[in-house]
Design brief:
Layout (H helix, E strand, L loop, with lengths): L8 H26 L4 H13 L2 H26 L7 H19 L5 H30 L3 H23 L22 H7 L12 H18 L1 H11 L1 H6 L4 H17 L1 H10 L10 H11 L4 H24 L5 H15 L7 H11 L5
Helix pairs in contact: 1-15, 2-3, 2-14, 3-8, 3-11, 3-13, 3-14, 4-5, 4-6, 4-11, 4-12, 4-13, 5-6, 5-11, 5-12, 8-9, 8-14, 9-11, 13-14, 14-15
Length: about 375
């Protein structure tokens, strides 16, 4: 009797997500067609808006940077069996850590000396904000989903209080801090390319994109090539086996959530130090929530997360072009397309597995 075919790894992490995306785009095309617009033309406009010129590419990669950080944060927690949906609040508080460091030292140190300190501030503040729900889950049995949701709201309220009553620049009405000294700003992409004689248009893309790629490599090494990563994966798959192997699940949960928050906090490097150059409200703009979809689509692997982040960066930037070019396609329609992608990559992630398994079973010789 032949054994059921197990999907190869390259099919599970490559083919299946690609089919899910195609299905989401097909449904989106039907919706666009029902609005009286040409879906092929819409796709062409969206791709041009995301990659058609250097400024567009800069914006696409700028969005991609934030999604990489929040997607990695969700993935690290997921490997320990934790569903961290508090990336939004952790990124918010991580940005607070970045802002406090730079506001204190921007008149004394240049950006390259401030960067490691700002990253430390982002990691400490974001890590602590995630570690508290981790401790509550590990030692008090509080559900991580509930506590991380609550901490998103607490982070929002805390930032409003601080920027309205404590950190607001004297003499202004807008709830934001003073602008950082220009010497504390991260180098922008057009400045870095100018050093080697390449002229590109100005965009928000900055050095943080490189940091996000480095973080992806480090997370891959950490999860699959270190004993700490092994402990995280063991707790996530079988807590009883972890205890038998001498791993403390409570400590693992606590420190995994702290690491997850550290990664989410790095959004503050891109947004606060790289683009906004001051502390302000709502700079996270939903990146923490989108990171959940990015991690699901990327199968919680750094390579998949980078690719999924690029896709959502394309939707964010290319969607703005759709809104501008088509009368019937608004920004809300772009959110609908994102929703379809999340639906097919999340709730319906394994819809095509039986079909693909049967196809592989026919193509590959049965083992009996």
């Amino acid at each position: 009797m032949s054994q059921p075919i197990k999907l190869p790894k390259w099919v599970d992490v490559g083919v299946i997500p690609a089919l899910n995306i195609l299905a989401a785009l097909a449904v989106s095309a039907l919706v666009i067609l029902s609005l009286g617009e040409n879906p092929i033309e819409a796709l062409d406009v969206m791709l041009y808006g995301a990659f058609g010129y250097d400024e567009a590419i800069g914006y696409t990669l700028y969005y991609t940077t934030n999604f990489i950080f929040t997607g990695l944060a969700v993935a690290v927690a997921f490997h320990a069996g934790l569903f961290n949906i508090g990336g939004e609040g952790q990124a918010y508080i991580g940005g607070l850590g970045v802002g406090l460091v730079i506001l204190a030292l921007d008149g004394l140190l240049p950006w390259y000396a401030l960067l490691p300190l700002a990253m430390l501030g982002a990691a400490v503040f974001g890590g602590i904000w995630a570690a508290v729900p981790g401790w509550l889950q590990a030692y008090r049995g509080s559900h991580i989903v509930i506590t991380t949701i609550m901490f998103n709201f607490i982070a929002s309220a805390l930032m409003v209080y601080l920027l309205v009553n404590v950190m607001i620049k004297p003499g202004q009405m807008s709830p934001e801090s003073r602008e950082f000294a220009e010497s504390a700003w991260l180098p922008m992409a057009h400045q870095m390319f100018a050093v080697i004689g390449i002229d590109v248009s100005r965009s928000p893309l900055n050095l943080s994109f490189v940091l996000a790629l480095i973080a992806s490599v480090l997370v891959a090494i950490f999860i699959w090539r270190t004993r700490w990563g092994y402990a995280i994966r063991t707790v996530g798959r079988n807590e009883t086996a972890a205890i038998y192997a001498g791993i403390d699940p409570k400590k693992t949960i606590f420190w995994t959530m702290a690491l997850s928050g550290m990664l989410a906090g790095m959004v503050g490097i891109n947004e606060i130090m790289g683009v906004q150059h001051k502390l302000l409200l709502n700079f996270t703009a939903g990146y923490g929530f989108t990171g959940i979809a990015v991690a699901l689509m990327g199968r919680n692997h750094p390579i998949g997360i980078v690719l999924a982040s690029l896709l959502f960066g394309t939707l964010y930037q290319g969607g703005a072009e759709l809104d501008f070019e088509f009368e019937q396609i608004t920004r809300d329609m772009v959110i609908v397309i994102q929703g379809f992608i999340i639906l097919f990559s999340g709730a319906l992630a394994y819809m095509f597995n039986p079909l693909v398994a049967r196809l592989i079973g026919r193509l590959m010789p049965a083992r009996g």
